[in-house]
Amino acid sequence: MWTLAMSLSTQFENMREKMYAETRQMLEARDLGENDMVQVRIEQAQAWIMVTFYEFLRTDYRRGYMSAGRVFRLVQLLRLHEVDSPTANAGNLSAASFGESNASEERRRVFWVAYCLDRFICVGEKGLLTLNEDVVRATSLERRKIVGGRRTMTDADRFQICTCLPSLEIDHQDSHVAPMWFLSEAVTSSLSFSPLAECAITATLCGRVLAHDQVSAVEKMYGNAARDFWVRHEWLQGILKKRRDSLYVNHPRCSAFADPMLIFTSMTLHATTIYLCEIAETSNDVERHTETVIEYQNQALMAAREIARLSKEQDQAHVFMPFAVFLSARRLITHRRLNPLKGDRLETESLEGELQECMEALDKMQKMNNLAKYYLQVLKSEDFLASPRFAVGRQSCTIEIGHEL
Question: Residues 290, 292, 295, 299: is their CA dihedral positive or negative?
């Protein structure tokens, strides 16, 4: 915790690297000194999560990427994906066994932070997820059992992630954990959830869009029909819109700006809208769906402008916020290239101002965030602006934009 705190301060700049090196040495010595890997403590996973965040902020990206892998394996060893599994709690129906304790809530939070970390890394890297969301059998509210005033799953409803979403921070601090939801229910719900739970739901949508992108790439390679592509795409667009509307209703502007996690969640939702648009723009049969793609482009432009506004007003930046700001800036540049002569002067000046806000936000974050420094360099590089991957297709509105870390 001291190491991570120092990463966000300039006061202890001279002690930061020394503290980080000692922290890593202690954690690695503990791993090497333990012969029984079954005896993993939750504090080890928590410590590696904080080290991973530090490394993304202050050191080399690859080092953070490797440490994240260790986090995911610790989470699997601790079986944090089944904190609320009926199998894990079989024979013990006490309140504590169903997670209504600080210890179980702490385990939930560690799992969902690692789950979000997995998705935010992989979306930027276009990589494969480690903590999968795959459902074994669809759950339904009608088949839920109610035990002790709380939802639980029947054997017929078991799915891979059997850990409830985290509760409100105030409930956790007061040792009063209210009945919670499983991810499969929450993704399609319009109810209000805790900021961390909202972030986990949004991260889930990011992961689904990433999977859609990866499946589409395989379909292109084998020359399969594009019908399934548009079915998946419209389904994801519908869920994304519902989630975005729900977030605005349940967390109005005044409360959203009281919690940095909600700001980041909102920006991530908008960034996912941009990502989904970019996938549509590179479809094989985009010319047959020109009107649909144009609508997606309009939504992506609005999302980019909203990210620009949020980036200007935020004070505390999440580790992975630079990626959302980068997508916003890239979309604004794309719009400017696609519409060089369209729009009035005020509209043009507004777009230029929003692009400048994104650049200024990255410039501000780069002082304590190496990811922001990287994305700022990409946006300013001549190779990025002249890249053929950034070119408009000859017969359609396709924009081929690549991203690699």
Answer: negative
